[in-house]
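thread from #wetlab-drylab

HS: before we spend reagent money on co-crystallization trials with inosine-5'-diphosphate, can we at least see a predicted complex? here's what I'd submit
DV: go for it
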Amino acid sequence: MNGNRTFTMIKPSALAAGHSGEILAMIEKAGFRLVAMKLVRLSKYQAGLFYAEHSSKGFYGDLTSFMSSGPIIAAILEKDNAVTEFRQLIGATDPSKADPGTVRKLYGKSITENAVHGSDADSSAEREGNFFFSQLERV
Ligand code: IDP
Ligand code: MG
């Protein structure tokens, strides 16, 4: 059975460009409910912990520098089949390959600065949500 929660971040470039309101509107219009949300700035070390699964990749240094370059919005979202539906809403990792109308196509600037994060599995959604939010911060 597929789970009903996923985790997202509006990445520094999209927030700095003033697109967080539009992105949150797309998320809500697509039927996701906000369970938890906060504006935070990660240190490079914290970004490295979050993206530990990518630590052996060539882009890890650029990714963690970028993700700690400014504030982000982190959120837990709820909808049936949340992980899959949210990844459809955001589109492919590389914005130039993302479908028209997806968040990354509209607001992504490059494969690293691709506007938003979306969990890739229910287990990731749980781990990532727990990284940012305690039980008390969820409604
Ligand atoms: P995802 O965010 O679509 O799940 P992942 O493969 O999990 O993609 O990669 C995590 C993040 O690392 C991406 O969102 C993107 O910001 C960055 N990234 C992934 N692949 C590359 C790459 O080939 N070059 C530069 N950055 C990348
Ligand atoms: Mg991923």
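DV: The longest helix spans residues 122-132.
HS: ok that's useful, forwarding to the group
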